Automatic annotation (TrEMBL):
Feature: compositional bias, Basic residues: 1-12
Active site feature: C111 (cysteine persulfide intermediate)
Membership in a protein family: Belongs to the FdhD family.
Gene (UniProt): fdhD
SUPFAM superfamilies, per database record: Cytidine deaminase-like
InterPro entries, per database record: Cytidine_deaminase-like, FdhD
Protein name stated in the entry: Sulfur carrier protein FdhD
Primary localization: cytoplasm
Organism annotation: Nocardia amamiensis
Source organism phylogeny: Bacteria, Bacillati, Actinomycetota, Actinomycetes, Mycobacteriales
Keywords for this protein: Cytoplasm, Molybdenum cofactor biosynthesis
Length: 279
């Protein structure tokens, strides 16, 4: 199996001078996903947890609803210049064959869909509508989750170049953390883990991501029935619109003891005595 890090030489320039030395980098390689031998998509990812990635991706695209929908997922033979298997082509056999879409995957901010069309698409495709209640999470517990996520980023420690996603219980217990060069891949990997562990719909879990909250990440959370998404950085406008439309609690700028709650704040328990200020 490919390693998740690689060494490359570089020149480091600083006020004290220049040095040349090897640097540790995150590996980025293509993964082609095939359905019954037919190519579905190619995603650039960090090798590792590819089976989880495929489960999460196919769930997000409404092509499966449970782990039982996948009969087999096998790496196809493919070799590099040295004759080693690259493990970069994964062929999935579905229990019930489905037409392979011809449009590009995944949906991104550059896909050309208008906001209304995108919102309607997610609403009609999800098999797991979010409950009105869901987990109630204390602000102190929620605020500690990004640090807990960061503590489990072993490859980031070595490279400084990976995103992370984690699934947590309402009391702050980390159940699964995955890293990847692509934030959407990291989310697919933890959702795929949940699917294979029979935790989907994940109505009792919280998804935490290390970067920003895009429409695509909110979409994946909604498709998996995850009622709360917390991001260290900012959300996009369409991400907030989708979260509000689906009843997902979206939290951005989750840093230290501060956070911005953009939608469905009822699931956030504030500390006793803390008052709300309205501008």
């Amino acid at each position: 199996m490919s390693r998740v890090t690689a060494r490359r030489r570089m020149r480091r320039i600083s006020p004290t001078g220049e040095i040349q030395r090897p640097d540790t980098l995150a590996v980025e390689e293509p993964l082609e996903i095939r359905i019954d031998g037919q190519s579905l998509t190619v995603t650039m990812r960090t090798p590792g947890n590819d089976i989880d990635l495929v489960h999460g991706f196919l769930l997000s695209e409404a092509m499966i609803g449970s782990a039982a929908d996948i009969v087999a997922a096998r790496y196809c033979a493919g070799t590099d210049d040295q004759g080693h298997n690259t493990y970069n082509v994964l062929d999935v056999t579905l229990r019930t064959p489905v037409p392979v879409p011809t449009r590009a995957f995944p949906t991104t901010g550059a896909c050309g869909l208008c906001g209304k069309t995108a919102l309607d698409d997610v609403r009609t495709r999800t098999r797991f509508p979010l409950p009105n209640d869901g987990p109630a999470v204390d602000t102190r517990v929620l605020a500690a989750m990004p640090d807990s996520l960061r503590d489990r980023q072993s490859v980031f420690d070595a490279t400084g170049g990976l995103h992370a996603a984690g699934l947590f219980t309402a009391d702050g217990t980390a159940l699964a953390v995955r890293e990847d060069i692509g934030r959407h891949n990291a989310v697919d990997k933890v959702i795929g883990w949940a699917l294979r562990e029979n935790r989907v719909p994940a109505h009792d879990l919280v998804l935490i991501v290390s970067g920003r909250a895009s429409f695509e990440l909110v979409q994946k959370a909604v498709m998996a029935g995850i009622p709360m998404l917390g991001a260290v950085s900012a959300p996009s406008s369409l991400a907030v619109d989708l979260a509000a439309d689906a009843g997902l609690t979206l939290v951005g700028f989750l840093r230290g003891d501060t956070m911005n709650v953009y939608s469905t704040p009822e699931r956030i328990r504030t500390e006793p005595g803390r008052s709300a200020l309205m501008a």
